[in-house]
Design goal:
Length: 275
């Protein structure tokens, strides 16, 4: 077929289609999809048509952007609110274990909000928060390991960022680098906010405190905090950059140790963090 001036054939339209920014556009489509699925009727049709437990993992992928991660957590919250038994289906495909491995890589303020909304059952249906979502109660404890692992991953990044390699000025004398990049500040700030929220939940929510009766849960937190403090103390000049974070971690660990039963090894970890 020969294109005449002023006409567009399917082929010419495809040729002119802008393939740039495809990833960003896909994210926008996903956001619109999740927003529409806050309508219970549409969500019911969606879940009936697809094996959603596997679809969620496919949507998430191995290294999702923060937008993809946060929207997947929001969608997961909508599904669990509509059908609490979905937790079992998601567990059968190792969904919670996958979140524990994947979410830390994508952690940012939007993922933080989505993760804690899921933990506390804060769900927005048709753009409105459900009345039950206003009470401080743990609704989805299965996401807590992913939150704590995100803390561990973030603290590792903070510690690595404070230990910059030596720099050589013009006079040739080796000096320890003291520059704290914007990324370091961003990650440190994100971890401060995360620790603050954990402290607030621990002080205000009894069902949250009960989660730390699990040795596995407590160990994730204590191991992360002890490792971070040990690395920071290896380089005393680094401590000033993260002093506020250290104080918040110390407060959190002390609160959990005072409330939850800890064995001798954990007591030693607590004492090392509190130094």
């Amino acid at each position: 077929m020969i294109d005449t001036p002023g006409t567009s054939t399917p082929r010419s339209i495809a040729t002119r289609f802008d393939h740039s920014h495809r990833h960003e556009r896909a994210e926008q489509v996903y956001e619109v999809l999740v927003q529409n699925l806050s309508n219970p009727a549409l969500l019911s049709k969606f879940t009936a048509a697809l094996p959603l437990s596997r679809v969620l993992l496919l949507l998430l992928g191995e290294r999702p952007t923060p937008i993809i991660a946060s929207q997947t957590l929001i969608l997961l919250g909508l599904v669990l609110n509509a059908s609490p038994s979905f937790n079992r289906k998601f567990e059968l495909v190792s969904g919670w274990s996958a979140l524990k491995n994947i979410i830390p890589i994508s952690w940012d303020p939007s993922v933080h909000v989505a993760a804690f909304d899921l933990l506390l059952g804060r769900v927005f249906v048709n753009g409105k928060s459900l009345p039950s979502a206003s009470s401080a109660k743990i609704v989805c404890p299965y996401i807590l390991p992913a939150i704590l692992t995100s803390l561990a991953y973030g603290l590792e990044r903070v510690a690595a960022g404070t230990q910059l390699p030596p720099i050589t000025p013009t006079n040739g004398v080796m000096l320890q680098g003291t520059v704290f990049s914007h990324e370091n500040y961003s990650v440190t700030s994100a971890m401060e906010v995360l620790v603050e929220e954990l402290i607030d939940l621990h002080s205000s929510t009894s069902t949250f405190r009960q989660l730390f009766k699990s040795k596995q849960t407590t160990s994730i937190l204590l191991n992360a905090c002890q490792s971070f403090i040990a690395r920071i103390y290896e380089s005393p000049q680094s401590r000033g950059k993260v002093e506020r974070l250290i104080e918040k971690i110390t407060t959190l660990v002390a609160a959990i140790a005072a409330d939850a039963p800890v064995d001798e090894d954990e007591k030693e970890q607590v004492s090392l963090v509190a130094l």
